[in-house]
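Reopening this one. Same input as before:
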Amino acid sequence: MTLDHRLIAMLVCPLCKGPLEAGRDADNRLVELECPADKLAFPIHDGIPVMLESEARPLATAATPAPQLVP
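Same output, byte for byte:
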């Protein structure tokens, strides 16, 4: 079962009410909805998005290099 793209467009983050992005696995299957603002990913189980903060996982962020001071 897959989520309709219109449903994904209507869903918002339960915390900040911001837009969500589709998170896909290596096989391009939709597996979670990601909130870039809160850096959380909400899982999708059996085609149903679980929009609970307690079920969300933190998104992995790329480490940003420390700024270098110029003498």
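So the earlier flakiness isn't reproducible anymore. For the record, The first helix runs from residue 5 to 10.
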